[in-house]
Amino acid sequence: MAKTKVKEFTRGEIELADVAKALSHPARIKILKILSSLNVCMCGEIVDLLPLAQATVSQHLKELKRVGLIQGEIEGPKTCYCVNFETIKKVSKKISQYLELLNKGENISCKTKKK
Amino acid sequence: MAKTKVKEFTRGEIELADVAKALSHPARIKILKILSSLNVCMCGEIVDLLPLAQATVSQHLKELKRVGLIQGEIEGPKTCYCVNFETIKKVSKKISQYLELLNKGENISCKTKKK
DNA sequence: TTTATTTATCGTATATTTACGATGAACGAT
DNA sequence: ATCGTTCATCGTAAATATACGATAAATAAA
Fold this sequence. Notes:
- The structure is a homodimer.
- The first copy, chain A, has helices at about 10-20, 25-35, 45-50, 55-65, 85-105, 110-115; strands at about 70-75, 80-85.
- By secondary structure, the first copy, chain A, is mostly helical.
- Chain A has a two-stranded antiparallel ribbon.
- The mean pLDDT of chain A is about 90.
- At the A-B interface, helix 1, helix 2, strand 1, strand 2 and helix 5 of A face helix 1, helix 2, strand 1, strand 2 and helix 5 of B.
């Protein structure tokens, strides 16, 4: 690997951080729960379950859509939002791979390094 | 469950979002990789591997420390940073539980809901 | 056609994040 | 005691995120 590359961020690192960003607000965590567990899909229904204004919820939905975690199907004036389970699976894999990678280094402790 | 509770965020939702926030920057994703895989622990060593100034890296380390993903042991003028593997495990569990919960709703598709 | 419903977007205010240079504090080495 | 090294913190600028009211667009219902 080229020496300078070490100082850059990889695509994997950037993508993982981007997904984490999409999950970095309680409202978005909750919206995904709602969409995956309740027979609910319209923006207005979600608004009724959150302590936020409609415009704000719409913004959060947009952020989740941006990274593909949900998709919206427009039906006239309404929009039906649903979890994109394919993305969820891909994301689950990426995250668990990352966390496993971290855990592999468990033998490297502060005591080992300080020497 | 009380009716108003639905409109609030739970502690679990807030905590999960908070961890996601700590992971929402490529630099912090990479710092955790570095600390878990290389025999590296000092701030200066990490700075050498990132395209960021020392002050900025120090800030990112602070954020990772805030949520307990790393810990720092001061040794005179130096500080030895290490991954906190206990936290990593707890976080891994929380995240995988959450993603499993989402995946359980897979039968609830847009088509089902629209009807 | 008019009205009501639903949602996205605009405008805007405020808060937070990110980044960096400069500086100070802590210590080891000379 | 002075100097060099290491790192955290301060000050600050710029960018991004969060929140909401107002409004526009789309359409169903009257």
